[in-house]
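PROTEIN FOLDING TASK:
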Amino acid sequence: MKMRFTYLSGICLLISTFTFAQKGKTYEVKSQDGNIALKVEAGSKLLWSVQHKGQPLLTPSAISLQLTKGVLGDDAVVRSATTKKVNTTIKAINYKKAVISDQYNELTLTCKGDYGVVFRVYNDAVAYRFFTKKKGELLVKNEEANFNFPADQKAFIPIQWDYRGGQNFNSSFEALYHEITLSQFPKDSLAILPLLVEAGENKKVVILEADLENYPGMYLNYQPDGKGLKGVYAPYPLEVQNGGYNTINLIPTKRADYIAKTTGARTFPWRAIAISEQDKELLNNDIVQKLAAPSRIADASWIEPGQVAWDWWNSRDITHVDFKVGLNTDTYKYFIDFAAANKVKYIVIDGGWTPQLDLFQVRPELDLQQVIDYGKQKNVGVILWASWNAVVHQMDKAFPHYAKMGAKGFKIDFIDRDDQLAVASLYEIAAKAAESKLLVDYHGSFKPTGLHRTYPNVMGYEGVKGMENYKWADEDQPRYAVTIPYIRMMAGPMDYTPGAMRNVNQLNYRAIGSQPMSKGTRCQQLAMYVVYEAPLQMLSDSPTAYMKEKECTDFIVKVPVTFDETVPLDGKVGEYVALARRKADTWYVGAMSNWTPRDLTLDFSFLPPGNYQAEVFRDGLNADRNGTDYKKEVMQVSAGQKLTVHLAPGGGWAARIEKAK
């Protein structure tokens, strides 16, 4: 990593810092491009507010840390105010780009009482975090984090539901978006992050958190005036018991009257807002990566991203074979054969290979060592499903045991909590998995907050209402599918699990658990492999389905799972999305629409000068009637060309572009 820090005088970055500190205790920091202005007021309350090109985005909003003895931030006495200008780059690991430009201006307020607050202003975001330098242990009763807006604005709000064991703060962290005004926030509800607010003049504000370690995750609730949101946190668990879904969850049964028990000298999570003038800018925002702690794995060369042949979504629906399909050796050797033939790097053996709470009782019809060894011969790795409950109790023995057998990682499911102990557990699991050189894919998990940068063996997160819901639910997934790239995906990897080969319109849709289908078109499913970020990207349908659809399968398996560059092309939250990604010298383009058919003009100015050949998959003329209808064609494109493409209802467009030979 190259780093260049420039310390600026108060006149340059912080407007008359010490004069204002003495008179009104007001501090102002601007982004390096001058467009974003942060104002901090240190009076009876510590307030932050944000403007973009003179337009108020956040009005003064109080922040504080409430301890058992005192409130940090109230009646703050600022001992020093220091500033810093940073221009650096971050070499990304398994990300949507190879190098991240990290530019911000920083203000640090150090206050009487052994604490302070760091504020950062980027060209596309603002963030702050508390820090303490106290001795001994701290009990944090609550944290005040407010986001006040100048008006009752429309928002995309994911409301917590699907409570495990009927308990608040225990859920799957998967929710459709309530597209409502702030004042319409449902009573007695909490929102999960990220959350998007329309700020006027086409601007958007997305609320996120980052570097969440050994501390509870933040939910949001509405302010009584209907114009703001406030942070809410799960109280610290004192006692837990098995319960929830199939009694697989660890459900807190007794909680403390504080949210965190922690060391007195530490930094706290970043609270951030990302800002865009055009919706498509959100597709390339890196704020969570920038704020996350750097990698703690010195040598990450063993961490290999890749696509995954997955068994659970398709219920192992394999036909025309001479063995009984099930959770057995022959079935998974068949999955390995399919993966090897298509250069898919991994398979997952999902739930059922052991009891849900014991990782050492392998079902007798599955010779796991034989399957893993067979995968080695075929250059296909095996990833194993496990419940979080089992991992918490058995990882010290299970991780080295299965690593020695040759397993490549664990898909860890049914966490369904983000209190301090659950958050700390995910870091501990990542670290111990890394010691055994195992990958981790978190399911039933809260949103990413940067752990995947700190421990890059963490390759995936669910925390999204993904394609599994087609097995039991009838929802507006095509609209959700073009909303999450602007909101949920900003937090980090998103295991939506695309790849359905049964594609239908709303009229013909049925939720069938054993033979699921997707709403929208085949080309939308193909485009998801370009649009959705997932270093472990699933092929969710069955080998049989993919072998019947060889053209589409060949396209899917050629799409990388990490990239060197990302270029947003066009988009509107909840309506459509189009972007391009580069790996080495090859470009990939994906475009998706909700149920509204539309024509998009794609600008190929992202291509370097020259002529190119594009392999294109577009919606067929009858894709509105039958979602499987598509047209494959090869065309010549050139740098700077503008191409109009048609997207059917729930449609998509996908292309692989290489230099013409």
Notes: Residues 603 and 642 are 5 Å apart (CA to CA). Residues 388-405 form the longest helix (18 residues). The first strand starts at residue 3 and ends at 6.
